[in-house]
């Protein structure tokens, strides 16, 4: 059974269709065909989400401290501490980039806060 909306559409165009149908049934059929093509649905198009830009804090280069030509035992301990802090900062940046990539690749786009909780 046709829907009420379709009946309203046909009733609205009946006065226009009557003169066409009486003169030429082909012309009236073309008019009906145009009405049917207006009911056709358009295909759904999905656009991919825009990529998340990397924050500037994750793109800072990790510079190693300058190594002096002569060192004492105490100087080498200070240098080791500086080298370890640079290594830790670089590892933190890499971890942040991996989290952003995991966010980009996940179909549900898991929130970044939940990725931070999993550490």
From TrEMBL:
Pfam family, one: LysC
Signal peptide segment: 1-42
UniProt keyword annotations, A-Z: Signal
InterPro entries: LysC-like (IPR058979)
Protein's name in the database: Peptidase
């Amino acid at each position: 059974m046709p829907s009420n909306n379709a009946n309203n559409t046909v009733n609205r165009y009946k006065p226009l269709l009557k003169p066409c149908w009486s003169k030429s049934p082909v012309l009236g059929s073309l008019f009906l065909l145009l009405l049917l093509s207006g009911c056709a649905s358009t295909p759904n198009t999905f656009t991919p989400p825009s990529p998340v830009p990397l924050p500037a804090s994750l793109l800072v280069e990790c510079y190693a401290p300058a190594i002096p030509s002569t060192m004492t035992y105490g100087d080498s301990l200070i240098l080791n501490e500086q080298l370890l802090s640079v290594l830790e900062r670089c590892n933190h940046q890499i971890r942040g980039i991996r989290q952003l990539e995991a966010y980009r690749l996940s179909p549900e786009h898991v929130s970044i806060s939940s990725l931070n909780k999993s550490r």
